[in-house]
Give the backbone structure.
Amino acid sequence: MTEVGIDAVEIWTGKLKLDLPGTFAPEKGDDPEKYTKGLGLNNSSFPDVYEDIVTMGANAAKGLMDRKGLEPADIGRIDVATESAFDHSKPVSTYIAGCLEQVYDGDFTHANKGERKFACLAGTQAIDDAYNWIRAGRNRDRPAIVITTDTALYARGDPGEATQGAGAVAMLIDEDPSIVALSTDQGYGSKDETDFLKPNQQFPSVDGKRSVQVYLSRMREALEDYESVTDDIELDDFAYAPFHTPFPGMVRKAALLAYRHVIRDTEHEDALADEIGRQPREGNFVDREAYEEAIREYMDKLKTTEQYQTWYDTVVEPTLGLSREVGNWYTSSVHIARVSALRDALARDRSFVGDTLLVASYGSGAQAEIHSETVREGWRAEIEGLDIDDQLAERYDLTWEEYEDVHDVHEYDMDVEREIEEFTQPESEFVFTGWGRMNE
Ligand code: CAA
């Protein structure tokens, strides 16, 4: 069976940056290490006033098409995954296709376009859809473009404000892919949850602490489901494990959970069961607080073991490189974690064709999906082709007052003009010039 997977990737970051320890922490009266060590973030990316989910997605897609020498006629499908959509009817992919048609010969009349929604998980689901479409033989030898694009902004003063970000990733999904081939095995953990919602509102209503617990619960279920369709998984099966990364501190928690699950350390688990068995009981029920304390102590001990630290430093930490510098990109987050891993392999001149990645995606609301991917021969050239380091270095560093202004500008209010000047100069790229109006 021909392999199907990610053939090429392109990243577009918002052009502005907010320095979390240097600008955000002093304004909030916080210790900068809450951000650098606790959440694990140095900077957030922000969109300049002429950027939004359409321009960022279109710029990423154009970069991808130019690098691969593609014209609209070559593409059979464009799917956008976003949780920042401003239109409840027309998919964002139509806006992006419209932009691309302005600069290429030909159009996307023939292409199937859609929009996928399941919070941050939707990008992975759009890749799955493209995979299935190709595998079903409905693609007429044409690849799909999957674009993940978000302005992940929270209301000012919300605890989530520290984890904001803005950017897009475009991925070409094709047969015989250059970067990674997708496996057919998947595991899911899915439940109706209300910890993170945007009912007809741009900024989310979030129960942040609960959202962390929901992420971990769905991830544990997805791991169990994944193991039910694969042979037992072992620690050294995976070269890297990119997780959905709202902030690196979240991945530290998820990685420990995954590690505990994979090692199935019966000695430790028995000791934990004994410890829990000794906790005071009410009828047949263990005291909940004592139970949770025993688990916490066990996990705290586990994370100090040399085996865990070596595994984390080798397999998980390298996936967090981009996230530390850009914040949460919602639907793109797991996809920049994958790219971070591949960039780490490139920096170490690692030859790992045929090695496996364990990819753990998550979306609030809530669903986790786990699958594996196999690294393909063309990965090196594709990752070398990225210019994300230059993009990050060129971002404009916002002052606090500028940050407040630009945050206001990005509220999707079609009746309010964007009144402030841009901070950077656009160069040969798509820009937002104003909301279109019907019948005008
Ligand atoms: N030095 C070192 N570490 C410090 C510190 C210091 N001076 N001060 C605090 N910390 C640590 C804390 O101990 C904590 O770490 P642990 O969780 O490991 O204990 C960490 O820094 C964060 O501190 P707080 O918990 O006090 O931070 P907070 O209450 O201000 O907010 C948050 C944390 C609730 C996650 C908030 O950022 C939030 O609401 N974020 C948005 C929701 C979110 O991202 N949820 C993640 C799961 S949902 C998801 O993944 C989908 C998605 O993309 C949104």
The domain at 4-409 is CATH 3.40.47.10 (Peroxisomal Thiolase; Chain A, domain 1). The mean pLDDT is 93. Residues 31, 33-34, 37-39, 120, 159-160, 162-163, 196, 206, 208-209, 211-212, 215, 244, 246, 249-250, 328, 330, 362, 364 surround acetoacetyl-coenzyme A (CB under 6 Å). The two ends are 52 Å apart (CA to CA).
